Sequence to fold (310 residues):
Amino acid sequence: MDRRLLDELAHRCRGELLRDEPLWRHTSWQVGGPAAVLFRPANHVDLVKAVRLIDAAGCPRLVIGGGSNLLVRDGGFPGVVLELPDFNVVRIAGDGLVEAEAGVRLNSLIKQLVAAGLGGLEALAGIPGSVGGALVMNAGAGSQEFGRVVEAVEILSGETFAWRPAAELAFAYRHARLAPGDIVTAVRLRLVPGDPELLQAAYAERIGHRRQAHAVGGPSAGSVFKNPPGQKAWELIAGCGWQGRSIGGARVSERHANFIINAGGAMAADIEALIEAIRSDVERQTGVRLEAEVRIVGAPAATGPGCEGA
Ligand SMILES: Cc1cc2nc3c(=O)[nH]c(=O)nc-3n(C[C@H](O)[C@H](O)[C@H](O)COP(=O)(O)OP(=O)(O)OC[C@H]3O[C@@H](n4cnc5c(N)ncnc54)[C@H](O)[C@@H]3O)c2cc1C
Fold:
């Protein structure tokens, strides 16, 4: 890591800076090598300052939320990983209008909405991760999707914050249109007033359901592949005989064929190899090419100088 960048980040930006931070601590799969630097800016001003310094140094950067849809390779991330835990404010106004900052845990937001008698996201109860991650992934469950209740999104693009209307993000199945490098800092949502007791019951039902559905035998990142149009990824994977099969410490869950679990001591390379093996075998057997829902980032083990010497 470029010494000057490190000094400037440490001295000119308020926040928490960690060097060589193991990213397995920040991902639900519990795998992944270190980030050269992990930085948690104190507020909007410090985030812009940090981004300016990082970009001027030509250093790669990556934002992570809860790391629940992320496979970080074993070589880690050779640049700066940004986390936004201090972007944690929820404002509930009248008329079902709510603003939530990107670092708020999705489930904490949903709990607050349900308590305030606001419906529209309760089917997503129990989905791990942050509001920023839910926006970027357009997280969904049943007939609800995060993007459907979004009115506008605050995005840091380059060095400028701007609120963009939801239409510009063209939400689709597990997709939101963002430019490379864009950082989501807050969302404005429009919820539907409802009976708090019914919302609470729906919330509790989803949490109960998820407790069972998520008992897949080990740490995971939820569904690995998107459902192809009109088909279920898990059915294709199970039909091709992958349930229970392993590479190293990575195993296709016996409970849910679209979940890969860290069955103990898995490396990111094991998980990635299993993803590729499933993809090519399902394509060979069925003609359907599965698209990954999880995002794969970072360097394979022992490669990549990152922004060293930049
Ligand atoms: C047990 C389990 C069950 C799950 N069930 C579901 C489910 O039912 N439905 C569903 O849709 N998903 C599900 N997921 C997947 C995951 O929880 C969601 O995709 C979640 O919304 C990801 O949020 P995150 O904060 O963890 O994002 P991360 O994994 O941290 O990041 C995901 C992507 O978003 C980017 N990103 C994150 N925050 C920002 C930001 N502020 N600005 C710009 N980019 C950002 C990251 O760079 C990365 O590319 C499940 C995962 C697990 C582990």
Remarks:
- Residues 71 and 272 are 8 Å apart (CA to CA).
- The chain has a mean pLDDT of 95.
